[in-house]
Recover the amino acids of this structure.
């Protein structure tokens, strides 16, 4: 009897499985590839912006576009960041990419040139979707806030490959009602000095039984704020080291380190490290092992008063929070600050904020004309306004008003050239030892000296390795440019003036690149010679 | 099939149960967490991460949403997982039998061929594979996923199975051979019954692997209609503010069919095949 | 071990080759790309994109001076040794289950073992991170509640480690000295469901009469384990050992998720696999990463060989 | 893949049509020449778009056509071979052979001059083991044989880099800089002149020359012209800042005014405007 029951149960299992399988077979057999309606054009575009509201906003733009073009269908393809590069590579190599692709992950200059259509001839024509507006006769390029100055591909390939539909900035968000409760004031901190008062208020609040972290931290969010403060501390140092006097960050500490005019004991670096430590104290302990979603979660659940992140998170944070979320620029030490004021110029300028979410048109696009037209609509006054309002992302087009909800995110041009962070003084090796040493800076019993004790002895070797890598990569670019340049010259002699212009630009770029390649090699050799004789 | 108890051993039974249950309890903690978080929202989860909510406060909507997310992919997933698992194991058993039965000429060479692949850590480069599949016109088809599952599963499964088949007493094979059984018959009558439970374990592993895989479907399928449920799950995982309740609910819904299926088929793997037929 | 066979017999048994050919074809066609590509690219200066330059053995020469890589082999060595011990609980669990008199319970325990396998790794990771969290984590709460913390602090002040201090939560994943211990504690009590199932499959071969005979001889349960059960599952133990060694040496997912691509504080969590990943995806030196991969391959091959040679199966 | 095949098919059809028409009617034989030229144009176009391997294949196919004057095709093949992926020593060696052949056939036409330029570039940056001494010699030959040609002018810049940084004759960078500064008169082409003075300005800074010297080089760069926006912005700032160090305050005002007039969206703008206001109100720039 028992045997039978067992047998029965066993067969139920397999019958179930067989039934499921049969069902799936039937389902799969029934599915015919969707009837291709020839009169309907499907535009596909792909990106990785999974933040709340972005998909809906782009769908809203698409819906508005379809109202005007009923014979068009628009398909939005969302691919998560961590697989985007792989996904895109296979699509491009396989020759079946979507029409429009967000440029970023998995894109290099040669891929861009190979798989995307240059839009240089398009950007000088007015955008037809701006007809009847003030921008009616303005070339498409000049309707962008940054004039497409930072368009992908422009710097090395001398063509426009990507069209941005937004811009991004970073801010310090805070929980407004909680802020008032903790500090007793509605006015957010404008300077670092005021921020320390907030820290103090949080401490008092916790003493009275609260359980609040001042700033939510994670390996993603913490550097956003810390780097901004660090870079403000090194503004004057950067100008001192900048012997070429270009007055911006152009890798000055790199050669300065090799000729001995820069080391880690510079008072500005110490001060910047000290400041990082102060900030770190007000983040949860062990924040370096927390992830982005942990910090966001802590903020949304009111365990943290503030969080530093980009404008891309504003919609998610507002949607998930039961309280009012406000945002301010990073509160920096003022020039009057007795401890930190001596090294800073003031808040960094955001004048060069470039376009973000750049869409490129693929060469193998099934519907290039339709897709280009949709892209033009997305970056017209009307389309970009819809996008910006629905997503709470900044617009990229000049006369589109910044929605009131994101007014604090609009780039501020009044500010000073930025300094640098330690990771920028080198490459991957410096970054690695910096990350290895960082816990010494922020842990309760750590400090600047403990940090330097580990970091400094390893710094020279890391700089050498990074310099070697930079030189190697520089050489690779230079040698590739030779072929392109000769080809452009040949085309120019064949009677193509545009190629001539590009050849001239490439010659300039190669000259500047080769200058720095040789100069770096020289610096490194001299440094190694010095090291050898020192030994 | 297993040891029959003697009077002595019966007495000391309960401490064993206790230890096993304790260990299993810890092992099952993730499952418990998945269950109880799946009906919470983020605030509830944060305030009471460990304890379940009273049933009245459950957010059934999480499970409903999870179901809506998973359901469209079920048919494809079952298709790929079932076919993938069956074919993988079928070929792997044949292969393992080849290695385990005799030391055939070249068998060492073939073995090295497999071992090399298993030991070599590759910097994943999927593009050549993609180009190959494209040139074979294998893109955008569920059969390709089955094919890749079979190819990807061979090395590991053959490696494990070989060890087990080698352990089967040789006289069993010889007896079968005397009766005039072909090699295929020997596999059916000797190998499968004798290694039923390891085959079952491998089948479960392979099935789960197919069930949750997201990369290959995402890369190889152009049509959304051909995705399997792993693809649905990564969208949840990729979001920047995690809705833990919804994520757990989706995971739960996604693994429920597996659970039901295993509950019903385990018996076969555990003893249905192994016991009766050939007890030495 | 498989039996040697004479050529003549082998010719008669030619049909056996039909059994292996499909697998070979499948693997050769679809699975061999990463391995071949790694070998090929280890001779190139390659950034992972379309452009690469042939540089002969330069990548391999560079390995010699790579202090980070060699240090990472030390770390992985410790982890491998720790993982050998972490195999024990699964073996004990399998033996315990096997010795249960009731078929029914045995069956249900096996079913319960399968359940954790279907829980996605993300959930487990999530729980363990919660466990180790310095501020709200369970581990620190347990240490505090049981008074173990004060014991640790006492030991600490005696040895002057500076790791455990009063009034300061233990920073499990951000103190360099605790990285390896944390990685080793991870997964406690280290029951691998697959491992237990595999051992159980091996134990099935034990007939009742063996136990009876043993008991007549007056063997205690420890002796039974040593003389009956353990020898019988040697094949499975060796199998687990090989799979564990391969998995540990190639693995780096946990380290990367918890500590990032730099190996965490003072790089104590840097393992060869993670270094390979770092070189490829952070520094863009894919060619070098491939060369590191080959070195790792040779290393694993050596260990597998030793394992096969010295962990003997005698029955 | 498919695109490659399509191109290949198109080319085959073209060649076939070309061959057939040539055989049928000798009168239109120029047509085949045009076909070859357009094939070459297409290949150059691919190379300019970084489709190096495609370009190289097209050149090879065009080169295989019978009865075609092949110097340009050979040059194209050699040029692309330098960057064909994967980059190998044998490709570079083949490119070198081709270039030498082109030069041997006729040493003075445009194709040969380009070949000479590339021949010098090979030991400079294309070989894994560089030989900059050889590169220097080859550049020198090119410069002596065709002093006014734009490529010879560019060669002066590239050779300048080698002599400045790599060769140790004279021994110190400062001495080498002095030699190079004296030779700047040889530069007549505007682009090459610009690049040469960019080099001189960098080295003058490296060797701590007085700001007036650097300023002189920077003015030369500006005079030569043809800088793109980003580099031009840097140049204006550099001129103004070195002038500030040199105490030439009207130059500072002039170049800062030029800068603010032209570069609206630059992170230095606000700071520079602040400095300008201070200068104009009679103070000293901070």
């Amino acid at each position: 009897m028992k045997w039978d029951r067992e047998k029965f149960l066993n067969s139920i299992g397999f019958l179930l499985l067989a039934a499921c399988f049969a069902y799936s077979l039937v389902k799969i057999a029934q599915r015919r590839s969707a009837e291709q309606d020839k009169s309907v054009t499907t535009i596909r575009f792909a990106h990785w912006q999974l933040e709340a509201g972005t998909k809906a906003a782009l769908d809203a733009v698409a819906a508005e576009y379809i109202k005007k073009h009923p014979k068009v269908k628009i398909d939005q393809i969302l691919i998560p960041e961590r697989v985007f590069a792989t996904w895109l590579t296979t699509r491009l190599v396989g020759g079946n990419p979507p029409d429009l692709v967000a440029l970023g992950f998995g894109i290099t200059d040669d891929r861009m040139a190979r798989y995307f259509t240059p839009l240089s001839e398009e950007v000088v024509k007015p955008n037809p979707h701006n007809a009847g507006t003030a921008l009616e006769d303005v070339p498409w390029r000049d309707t962008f806030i940054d004039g497409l100055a930072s368009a992908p591909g422009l710097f090395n390939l001398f063509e426009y490959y990507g069209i941005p539909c937004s811009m991004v900035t970073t801010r310090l968000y805070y929980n407004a009602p909680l802020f008032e409760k903790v500090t007793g004031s509605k006015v957010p901190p404008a300077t670092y000095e005021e921020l320390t008062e907030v820290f103090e208020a949080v401490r008092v609040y916790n003493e009275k039984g609260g359980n609040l972290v001042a700033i939510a931290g994670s390996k993603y969010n913490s550097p956003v704020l810390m780097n901004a403060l660090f870079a403000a501390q090194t503004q004057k140092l950067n100008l001192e080291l900048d012997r070429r006097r270009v007055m911006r960050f152009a890798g000055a500490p790199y050669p300065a380190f090799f000729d001995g005019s820069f080391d880690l004991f510079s008072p500005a670096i110490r001060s910047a490290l000290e400041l990082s430590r102060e900030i770190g104290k007000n983040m949860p302990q062990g924040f370096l092992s927390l992830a982005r979603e942990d910090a966001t979660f802590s903020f949304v659940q009111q365990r943290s008063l503030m969080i530093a992140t980009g404008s891309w998170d504003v919609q998610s944070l507002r949607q998930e929070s039961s309280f009012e979320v406000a945002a301010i620029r990073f509160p920096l030490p003022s020039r009057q600050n007795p401890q930190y004021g001596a090294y800073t110029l003031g808040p960094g300028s955001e004048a060069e904020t470039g376009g973000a979410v750049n869409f490129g048109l693929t060469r193998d696009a099934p519907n290039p004309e339709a897709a280009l037209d949709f892209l033009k609509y997305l970056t017209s006054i009307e389309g970009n306004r819809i996008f910006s309002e629905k997503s709470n992302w900044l617009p990229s087009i000049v006369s589109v008003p910044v929605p009131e909800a994101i007014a604090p995110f609009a780039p501020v041009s009044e500010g000073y050239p930025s300094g640098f962070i330690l990771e920028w003084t080198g490459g991957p090796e410096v970054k690695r030892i910096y990350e290895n040493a960082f816990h010494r800076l922020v842990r309760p019993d750590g400090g600047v000296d403990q940090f330097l004790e580990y970091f400094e002895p390893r710094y020279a070797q890391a700089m050498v390795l990074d310099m070697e890598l930079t030189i190697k990569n520089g050489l690779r670019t230079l040698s590739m440019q030779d072929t392109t340049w000769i080809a452009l010259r040949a085309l120019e002699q064949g009677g193509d003036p545009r190629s001539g212009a590009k050849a001239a630009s490439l010659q300039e770029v190669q000259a500047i690149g080769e200058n720095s390649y040789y100069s770096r090699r020289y610096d490194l050799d001299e440094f190694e010679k010095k090291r050898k004789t020192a030994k | 099939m297993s040891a029959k108890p003697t009077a002595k051993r019966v007495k000391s039974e309960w401490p064993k149960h206790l230890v096993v249950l304790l260990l299993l309890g810890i092992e099952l903690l993730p499952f418990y967490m998945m269950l109880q978080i799946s009906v919470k929202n983020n605030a509830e989860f944060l305030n009471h991460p460990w304890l379940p909510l009273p049933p009245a406060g459950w957010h059934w909507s999480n499970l409903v949403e999870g179901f809506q997310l998973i359901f469209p992919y079920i048919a494809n997933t079952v298709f790929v997982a079932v076919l993938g698992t069956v074919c993988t194991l079928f070929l792997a058993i044949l292969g393992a039998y080849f290695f385990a039965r005799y030391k055939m000429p070249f068998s060492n060479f073939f073995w090295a061929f497999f071992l090399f692949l298993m030991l070599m850590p590759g910097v994943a480069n999927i593009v050549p594979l993609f180009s190959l599949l494209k040139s074979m016109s294998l893109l955008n088809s569920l059969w390709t996923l089955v094919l890749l599952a079979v190819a990807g599963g061979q090395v590991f499964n053959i490696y494990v199975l070989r060890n087990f088949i080698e352990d089967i007493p040789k006289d069993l094979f010889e007896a079968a051979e005397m009766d005039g059984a072909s090699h295929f018959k020997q596999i059916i009558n000797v190998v499968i019954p004798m290694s039923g439970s390891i085959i079952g374990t491998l089948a479960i592993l392979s099935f789960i692997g197919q069930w949750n895989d997201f990369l290959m479907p995402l890369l190889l399928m152009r049509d959304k209609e051909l995705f399997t449920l792993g693809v649905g799950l990564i969208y949840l995982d990729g979001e920047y503010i995690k809705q833990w309740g919804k994520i757990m609910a989706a995971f739960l819904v996604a693994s429920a069919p597996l659970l039901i299926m295993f509950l019903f088929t385990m018996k076969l793997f555990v003893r249905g095949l192994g016991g009766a037929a050939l007890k030495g | 071990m498989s039996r040697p066979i004479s050529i003549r017999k082998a010719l008669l048994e030619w049909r056996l080759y039909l059994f292996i050919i499909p697998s070979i074809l499948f693997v050769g066609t679809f699975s061999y790309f990463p391995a071949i590509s790694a070998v090929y690219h280890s001779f190139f200066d390659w950034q992972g994109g379309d452009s690469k330059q042939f540089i002969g053995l330069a990548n391999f020469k560079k390995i010699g001076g790579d202090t980070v890589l060699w240090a990472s082999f030390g770390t992985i060595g410790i982890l491998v040794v720790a993982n050998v011990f972490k195999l024990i609980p699964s073996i004990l669990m399998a033996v315990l289950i096997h010795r249960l008199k009731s078929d029914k319970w045995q069956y249900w325990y096996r079913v319960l073992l399968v359940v954790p396998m279907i829980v996605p790794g993300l959930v487990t990771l999530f729980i363990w991170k919660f466990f180790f969290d310095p501020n709200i984590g369970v581990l620190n709460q347990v240490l505090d509640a049981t008074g173990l913390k004060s014991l640790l602090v006492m030991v600490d002040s005696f040895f002057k480690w500076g790791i455990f201090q009063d009034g300061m939560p233990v920073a499990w994943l951000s103190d360099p000295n605790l990285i390896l211990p944390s990685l080793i504690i991870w997964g406690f009590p280290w029951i691998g469901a697959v491992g237990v199932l595999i051992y159980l499959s091996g134990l099935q071969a034990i007939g009742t009469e063996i136990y009876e005979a043993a008991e007549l001889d007056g063997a205690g349960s420890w002796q039974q384990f040593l003389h009956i059960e353990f020898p019988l599952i040697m094949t499975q133990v060796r199998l687990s050992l090989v799979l564990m060694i391969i998995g540990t040496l190639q693995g780096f997912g946990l380290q990367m998720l918890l500590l990032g691509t730099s190996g965490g504080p003072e790089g104590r969590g840097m393992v060869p696999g993670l270094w390979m990943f770092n070189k490829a995806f952070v520094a863009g030196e894919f060619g070098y990463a491939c060369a590191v991969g080959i070195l790792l391959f040779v290393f694993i091959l050596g260990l597998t060989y030793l394992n096969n040679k010295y962990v003997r199966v005698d029955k | 893949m498919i695109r490659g095949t399509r191109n290949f098919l198109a080319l085959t059809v073209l060649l076939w049509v070309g061959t057939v028409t040539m055989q049928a009617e000798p009168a239109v034989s120029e047509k085949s020449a045009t076909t070859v030229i357009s094939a070459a144009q297409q290949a150059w176009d691919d190379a300019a778009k970084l489709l190096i391997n495609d370009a190289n294949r097209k050149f090879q196919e065009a080169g295989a056509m019978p009865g075609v004057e092949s110097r340009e095709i050979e040059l194209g093949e050699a040029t692309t071979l330098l960057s064909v992926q994967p980059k190998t020593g044998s490709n570079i060696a083949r490119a070198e052979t081709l270039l030498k052949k082109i030069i041997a056939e006729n040493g003075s036409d445009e194709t040969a001059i380009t070949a000479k330029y590339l021949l010098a570039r090979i030991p400079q940056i294309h070989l894994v083991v560089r030989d900059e001494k050889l590169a220097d010699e080859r550049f020198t030959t090119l410069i002596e044989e065709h002093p006014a040609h734009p490529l010879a002018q560019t060669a002066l810049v590239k050779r300048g880099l080698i002599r400045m940084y790599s060769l140790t004759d004279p021994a110190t960078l400062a001495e080498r800089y002095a030699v190079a500064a004296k030779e700047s008169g040889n530069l007549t082409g505007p682009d090459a002149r610009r690049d040469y003075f960019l080099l001189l300005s960098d080295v003058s800074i490296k060797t701590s020359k007085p700001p007036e010297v650097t300023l002189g080089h920077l003015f030369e760069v500006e005079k030569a012209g043809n800088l793109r926006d980003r580099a031009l912005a840097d140049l204006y700032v550099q001129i103004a800042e070195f002038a500030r160090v040199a105490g030439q305050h009207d130059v500072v005002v002039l170049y800062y005014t030029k800068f603010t007039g032209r570069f609206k969206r630059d992170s230095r703008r606000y700071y520079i405007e602040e400095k300008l206001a201070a200068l104009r109100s009679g103070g000293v720039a901070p």
